[in-house]
Amino acid sequence: MSTKSTKPFTVKPELEPADYGDISALLTVMRQLRNPDGGCPWDLEQDFKSIAAYTVEEAYEVADAVERGDIDALVDELGDLLLQVVFHAQIGADNQQFEFADVVRAIVDKMIRRHPHVFGDEDIADAEAQTLAWEAIKAAERGPASSVLDGVAVGLPPMMRAAKLQKRAARVGFDWPDTDGVIDKLREEVDEVAEALDEADRNQQGEELGDLLFTCVNLARHLDVDPDQALLSANQKFERRFRRMEAAADLSGLDSDALEAHWQASKSGERHDDS
Known about the structure:
By secondary structure, this protein is mainly alpha-helical.
């Protein structure tokens, strides 16, 4: 997260506040941060790998601002995410590998290439047809593949990657025809988790639990539900109800029956508020 300060500062070479809205100002700031002569020691120590986690974190904070509908926070978080792009580009420039202009050039070229119906003569009927065309262009760009699973990034959040792997496998027919098959598989995985609990093998328990989560993602795909959004909503619901419990009573020292009673009261109160 960025921090705001009222202290005056200077940038070498100096920038006027009127220039701050130009991308060149951010590039200048980052060059100075990475300048061995007077730059920031922390920024100078970083490489692609060391800041990768920050890049992912900033993307999630953008999503959080969107979810909360906080426009001021969205502006701030988009700036933080943009800084990550500039940071990576400056590291590339310092290593004489690529520069920010190469990043911009690559994405502009990609957008034009993958939208022939906008920048060329092709006709696309609707958004669904565009999605299919996009995937076809991507596949052609990658060239011959050894597997339909090629190109699914290993670094994606696990739930997102699970959904993408499942979609790719479904292209060649490896899928259930309807949700009934997924529900049956879900029950099977729950039983296998229960069996693993009896074995007291933590590795086996973790493996079976992973299979169960993978099947839950498959069910979400069949229902056309975003699993990340579904879990996000569940998190928010739990937090909302638990905070309501805390507001109603001191929960410390209560037994499980009393806690369950407060939980049910919180749920009931929430439904009453919504009615």
